[in-house]
Amino acid sequence: MLLGISQPANAHADLVSTDPAEGAVLQTAPDQILFTFDEAMRGVPNGVQVFDAQGELVDATTTVKGTELEVGLSEQLGNGTTVITWRVVSEDGHPIGGALTFSVGAPTPVATPPSSDSRIAEVSWTLTLARWVGYVGLLLATGLVTFAAVFLPASPWADRLRRRLAAVTRTVTAVAAAAWLAALPITAIYLLGGGPSLLAQGPTWSSLPLTEYAVAAAVIGGMVLAVALLSLGRASRQRRVAAVAVAAIAAMAPALVGHTRAASPEVLAIGADALHLLAGSVWLGGLVGLTLTLPDLSSRGAHAAEVLARFSTAAAGVLAALIATGSLLAWRILGSWGALVDTGYGQLLLVKVAIVLVAVAIAAWNRWSLLPRLKQATKRTNRQPPSRSVVRATAIEGAVLTVALLITGLLVGTSPEDGSLPASAAAQANPDTRTTTLGDVEVRATLTPLARGSNTVTLRLSSVAGEPTEGVAPPVVRLSSDRAALGAVPLTQVSPGFYTAQVMLPAPGTWRMQVSLRVSEFANPVGELEFVVRG
After folding, report:
1. What are phi and psi of 5, to 5 degrees?
2. Are 151 and 286 in contact (CB under 8 A)?
3. Of 221, 357, 428, 445, which has the most beta carbons under 10 Å away?
4. What CATH class does 432-533 carry?
5. DSSP string for 447-467
6. DSSP H or E stretch at residue 511
7. Which residues form the Copper resistance protein D domain (predicted)?
8. Contacts with 342 (C-beta within 8 Å, 6 or more apart), sequence order
9. What pTM was computed for the model?
């Protein structure tokens, strides 16, 4: 979603478990490694690499079965610590990746594989720019076609304006088409997590699903055909209808890829997104079309007021569609009103809503203040001042919507996952504290009241300077004793560097708290703390 309340965000698949577990120390080398995710995903060529204790690549095969990624080892691992880097693509089309470390025999220093963080970041920003230019160009081109075909009257002088708009639309279409074409190889590189050299390899191009190519073809072909229908000869009614139909198909085509594919129910989400895109194109293209044509229309008496009134009436329905579809998708993504203020995605969404409301206010001023003045001016000789005011207002409204599009680009890269703060779980006085160091991060853990039954876990992460800090991913805590293993404890973040959880300890004795923290793409140090629990 580009102009209204919300856009489906990056609801990526999450890694649920691995076998062996992160940081595990095994007596014998495994023949297979299993990654389990919370939703279906697909693999990418060379997405999994296995590095032995010496940092050498180990031959491996990968198989994706629904939510599971199986890594088969064709040769036995030697003793020491193994690092497996993995990269898969979520249902929403976004890549996720990480690394798994485990040891055979005794752990050894980790041989760090070459990092691609900076390269991936550069590709990500390049892809964001290409997509932003492509979407803005698509909405503007299809919207200009719709404005020229629907809102300008059927007359020879209006045909001249249509040809002028068609010339502008051809330029916009060329830029948008170039952006959509460029996005295809950039997307392939981004999915694989590599550099431009990957484009010389056949598997790179096959890593993109066919729908990506089909949507790009529909978008580019639709824009070109729509502007051609508008440009050739006199714009008859049949030709205008055909141009609008083709433009609408092009505007709605992107709903078939991306985030809506992971939303539920899929048909409803895709339909809402398609309608949202179409409404956004009519609004943005109409504003630009008015800005370009009103100076000429103002010299034709009532025609300027007629065109503006026609568009203002349609804009009310467009705005209603934007609000309805945006609200629906926002509800499907965030799930609660509290998430609007408790998550980064929700806060960014509120900023976007505020910007769109500014555009709505300008549109209302245009409709209820400037338009009546323009109508009155057509009855007198002095028509220029109100017409110029309308042009300025529509230009400002279009600029405000462009800012909303920039915010949308940030929304696409922001996770909507709930980061809401829990109720305070204050530890009792004098908690038993244990400290360990993971990389450059000091970890202070408490378990209170150290008695059988309900206990509170707190975890504080500090930098060398003593300031709260974070890893590249949230910490993972596992609790076990000789009698029971609770597995991973569901932590809740209270503030930066501060996590808490409630656990039920079924028996007294010595409990081991394993804390792991990913401090880089490939480094995931693990520490173990012991607590003595009373009966």
Report:
1. -80, -35
2. yes
3. 445
4. mainly beta
5. EES-BSEEEEEEEEEE-TTS-
6. strand 509-516
7. 306-411
8. 418, 419, 420, 421
9. 0.65
